[in-house]
Design brief:
Strand content: 15-25%
Cofactor: Mg(2+)
GO molecular function: ATP binding; metal ion binding; nucleoside diphosphate kinase activity
CATH topology: Alpha-Beta Plaits
Binding site for ATP: 11, 59, 87, 93, 104, 114
Number of helices: 7
Strand order of the largest sheet: 2-3-1-4
Oligomer: single chain
CATH architecture: 2-Layer Sandwich
CATH superfamily: Nucleoside diphosphate kinase-like domain
Bound molecules: 2'-deoxyadenosine-5'-diphosphate, magnesium ion
Keywords: ATP-binding, Cytoplasm, Kinase, Magnesium, Metal-binding, Nucleotide metabolism, Nucleotide-binding, Phosphoprotein, Transferase
Shape: globular
EC number: 2.7.4.6
Length: 140
């Protein structure tokens, strides 16, 4: 299995409830290394651009407003099979369907306020990492 990098976002519902450390611990316990991390407050334009792929979905406006509502913590996670492993640790998009022990099962408030984002494939991981970080900021 290849060593991969993936982009994670700890969303406003989680930063607001002081869950940043608990969520980061889940990544580390799963063997994912946090090779870059920063707390930022996205503008609506930045959040809209990041989630552009969903622009025609009915929830887009709500999603963008939520992601720009309060700070987020963006991180790059590195490890074997990191993209799929992070998706496993996150749990299903809808917390009602998330497995026990996953971040979304434990912490998510709803389908929209679901605590974390994670890249879904190698190409999106690359794009999403470049959206937030320069090469110099990635410290393996
Ligand atoms: P994921 O975040 O699991 O990759 P996604 O890419 O399908 O899920 O959607 C991006 C985010 O949009 C998701 O984390 C929460 C929000 N979202 C998705 N479907 C939604 C819905 N039906 N109602 C409200 N928000 C939704
Ligand atoms: Mg997605």
């Amino acid at each position: 299995m290849a060593i991969e990098r993936t982009l994670s976002i700890i969303k406003p519902d989680a930063t607001r409830r002081n869950l940043t450390g608990k969520i980061a611990a889940k990544f580390e316990e799963a063997g994912l290394r946090i090779v870059a991390s920063k707390r930022i407050h996205l503008s609506p334009a930045q959040a809209g651009k990041f989630y552009e792929v969903h622009k025609d979905r009915p929830f887009y406006g709500e999603l963008v407003e939520f992601m720009a509502s309060e700070p987020v913590v963006v991180q790059v996670l590195e490890g074997e099979n990191a993209i799929a492993k992070n998706r496993e640790v996150m749990g299903a998009t809808n917390p009602a369907n998330a497995d026990e022990g996953t971040i979304r099962k434990e912490f998510a408030l709803s389908m929209g306020e679901n605590s974390v984002h994670g890249s879904d494939a190698a190409d999106t991981a690359k794009e999403e990492i470049a959206f937030f970080f320069s090469g110099l900021e990635l410290v393996g």
